[in-house]
């Protein structure tokens, strides 16, 4: 056992009501003799969370928090992230990572509200989530104590967890053999799948695994067309109807999933040093990324757009690695948000058999000038003859190097 957290009076536990966190709840009581406060959050995972309240009460918990944070999650975390066109290692839309800072923040807030000196989570010692929860908590409350049971206890298998649950009288709804073979995490932005047969990166994920999306080859033969309205880089409407961010993401998930959009199968580099194979469904986020780049293409200055693209991988890594509350992420966010002041207008899309196609984009703040870009007769704004001097000046250093024999 770790000696760092031996003196614990009261702990806030991120509690799902499932086997792992129910055993953790009892284990905290048995190991530390402490009072446990439970926090169960709904961030759009599509599962009932109220059942966790009854189970927590059965285990003697007096202070139980059941909270719907979905609107805050989309408004204050998903939307800011998509202003940066954020993807990790070229593919992953960070659906799990972006939810962790919100949960860490709420755990720390409840610790303050209830006088708890510690927090606890069910993340394993092999994954990224332990880092994300704990770095976030330390950033917001430096003196907080953190208990990570998977790094302390000797319950190393599901059978051992079940035996512990039985010894403590913990009710387990799912019988052995009926649970999903995958480790899954869901919120309104995505659902992830890891473990089981997916641990071999050569194995194809079975079509029966996917829960949110139709297989592209079985998607409708008739495409779905829609228009997204933007204000300062955020989607504010679908087909002219003004909606809240949580409503927009929900609707895009439905449309994207129905058209086979958003499936991803990758091997990613975890912050803790190992490679991990994961499969993800992010239908709404996939649409958001494509559409946002389209509206930026006509509203952002060239150098601003390129600078954003250069900084995005760093921004993505900060989120992936758990540094949402870091000074550098906050600084980057200010720059990103400043770049979005004129990212206004509309993007027209077609969703068809796994693809998101941009049909058109328009904005009153567009920097696209047809008079300049046209291939037809010049209209006086751009003099093609001037390009000769421009090219010669930009080639000057190469000409000089070549004359010195430095270019092979």
Provide a short characterization of the protein structure.
The chain is of the alpha/beta class and 408 residues long. It has helices spanning 19-32, 51-58, 70-83, 100-114, 129-140, 158-167, 245-258, 283-299, 302-320, 327-339, 370-373, 387-403, and strands at 10-14, 35-42, 64-68, 118-120, 145-147, 183-186, 191-194, 224-231, 234-238, 241-242, 263-269, 275-281, 345-352, 355-362.
What does this structure look like?
The chain is of the alpha/beta class and 408 residues long. The protein has 12 helices and 14 strands. The protein has helices at residues 19-32, 51-58, 70-83, 100-114, 129-140, 158-167, 245-258, 283-299, 302-320, 327-339, 370-373, 387-403; strands at 10-14, 35-42, 64-68, 118-120, 145-147, 183-186, 191-194, 224-231, 234-238, 241-242, 263-269, 275-281, 345-352, 355-362. It has a 5-stranded parallel sheet, with helices on both faces. Strands 10-9-8-13-14 form a 5-stranded antiparallel sheet. Helix 7 (245-258) crosses helix 8 and helix 9 packs antiparallel against helix 10 (327-339). The protein is elongated, with a radius of gyration of 25 Å. The N and C termini lie far apart (63 Å). The mean pLDDT is 93.
């Amino acid at each position: 056992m770790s000696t760092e957290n031996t003196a614990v009076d009261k702990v806030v536990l991120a509690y799902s009501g499932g086997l792992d966190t129910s055993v953790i709840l009892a284990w905290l009581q048995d190991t530390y003799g402490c009072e446990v406060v439970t926090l169960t959050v709904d961030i759009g995972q599509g599962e009932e969370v109220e059942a966790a309240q009854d189970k927590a009460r059965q285990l003697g918990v007096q202070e139980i928090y059941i909270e719907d944070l979905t609107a805050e999650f989309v408004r204050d975390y998903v939307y800011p992230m998509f202003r940066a066109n954020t993807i990790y290692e070229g593919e992953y839309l960070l659906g799990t990572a972006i939810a962790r800072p919100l949960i860490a923040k709420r755990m720390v807030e409840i610790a303050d509200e209830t006088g708890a000196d510690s927090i606890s989570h069910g993340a394993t010692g092999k994954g990224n989530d332990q880092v994300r929860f704990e770095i976030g908590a330390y950033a917001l409350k430096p003196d907080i104590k953190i208990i990570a049971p998977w790094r302390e206890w000797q319950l190393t298998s599901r059978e051992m967890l079940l035996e512990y649950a039985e010894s403590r009288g913990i009710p387990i709804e799912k019988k052995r053999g009926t649970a999903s073979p995958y480790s899954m995490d869901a919120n309104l932005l995505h659902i992830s799948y890891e473990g089981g047969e997916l641990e071999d990166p050569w194995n194809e994920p079975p079509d029966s695994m996917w829960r949110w999306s139709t297989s592209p080859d079985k998607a409708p033969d008739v495409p779905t067309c829609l228009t997204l309205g933007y204000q300062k880089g955020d989607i504010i409407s679908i087909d002219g109807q003004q909606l809240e961010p949580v409503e927009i993401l929900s609707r895009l998930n439905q449309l994207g999933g129905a058209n086979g959009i958003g499936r991803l199968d990758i091997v990613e580099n975890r912050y803790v040093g190992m490679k991990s194979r994961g499969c993800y469904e992010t239908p709404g986020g996939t649409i958001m990324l494509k559409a946002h780049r389209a509206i930026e293409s006509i509203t952002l200055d060239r150098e601003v757009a390129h600078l954003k693209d250069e900084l995005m991988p760093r921004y993505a890594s900060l989120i992936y690695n758990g540094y949402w509350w870091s000074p550098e992420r906050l600084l980057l966010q200010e720059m990103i948000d400043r770049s979005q002041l004129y990212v206004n207008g509309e993007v027209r899309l077609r969703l068809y058999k796994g693809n998101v196609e941009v049909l058109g984009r328009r904005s009153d703040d567009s920097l696209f000038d047809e008079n300049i870009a046209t291939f037809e007769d010049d209209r006086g704004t751009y003099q093609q003859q001037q390009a000769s001097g421009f090219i010669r000046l930009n080639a000057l250093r190469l000409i000089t190097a070549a004359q010195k024999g430095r270019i092979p």
